[in-house]
Amino acid sequence: MQRVACLVSYDGTNFSGYQVQPRKRTVQLELERALTKLHKGQEIKVTSSGRTDAGVHAIGQVIHFDTSLQIPLERWPNAFNACLPNDIHIHEVRSVEPQFHARFDTVGKEYRYRMLLKKQGDVFRRHYTHTIERDINMERMKCAAQYLVGTHDFSSFCAANTDVTDKVREVTAIELWKDRDEVIFSFKGSGFLYNMVRIMVGTLLEVGYGNLSSEGVAQILAAQDRTKASKTAPAQGLYLWKVDYPNLVFHHNKNNES
């Protein structure tokens, strides 16, 4: 048996999230269905770096699985993709140590969130951006975002229905920039809580609208109370952009960095 890791992208629009759920179409279900086909009916389970919700996309999701197939690594993407639907794509496959774990070996992640600044919206980007129809102040949001950088208890920025008790996480960087008619948020950290990025986006938007001061974000963080933060930003603007490991680098990721 050989353990391999794959760099995966998917369009989350028509998925009920990543994780397998009864009677629902999920990314994990399609990946395992394709691998079972490749393995002539043998059931193959995959492990990912983490779950994504319904409507959330991935540019750089990472999975691992064990295989008995003797397919050369450079041929694995074509073989795997041939069995997958067209809203999932395998970019690269790497051989890893038998103890490698896609979830527990992560040392950092980057999420990006896309907002479309267009009062009339865009029918072709409605599944891939969150449309903002009001003016926003970028500088105020940049200032407010810095209060969220560092190691904190992010209880105020975590969905209330999570089972996680330890809500301390490290956010290493938050950046915002404008790309033509879009605003891009980048969130980097050692790990993120359920809905954490989307709640941070929703709260920073309130700063951009002028409804909340930059210092107010610090007060919300200190409160450790989900009811103090703003509503969760919609799923379709969120992308799992990149997952980092100490001893695994995907060439496609390096070529796609921006």
UniProtKB/TrEMBL annotation:
Keywords: Isomerase, tRNA processing. Its EC number is 5.4.99.12. Residues 8-105, 144-246 form the Pseudouridine synthase I TruA alpha/beta domain. Substrate binds at Y111. GO terms for molecular function: RNA binding; tRNA pseudouridine(38-40) synthase activity. It comes from the Bacteria. GO terms for biological process: tRNA pseudouridine synthesis. Pfam families: PseudoU_synth_1. The active site is at D53. InterPro entries: PsdUridine_synth_cat_dom_sf, PsdUridine_synth_TruA, PsdUridine_synth_TruA_a/b_dom, PsdUridine_synth_TruA_C, TruA/RsuA/RluB/E/F_N. It catalyses: uridine(38/39/40) in tRNA = pseudouridine(38/39/40) in tRNA. SUPFAM superfamilies: Pseudouridine synthase (SSF55120). Belongs to the tRNA pseudouridine synthase TruA family. Homodimer. Formation of pseudouridine at positions 38, 39 and 40 in the anticodon stem and loop of transfer RNAs. NCBIfam families: hisT_truA (TIGR00071). This is tRNA pseudouridine synthase A.
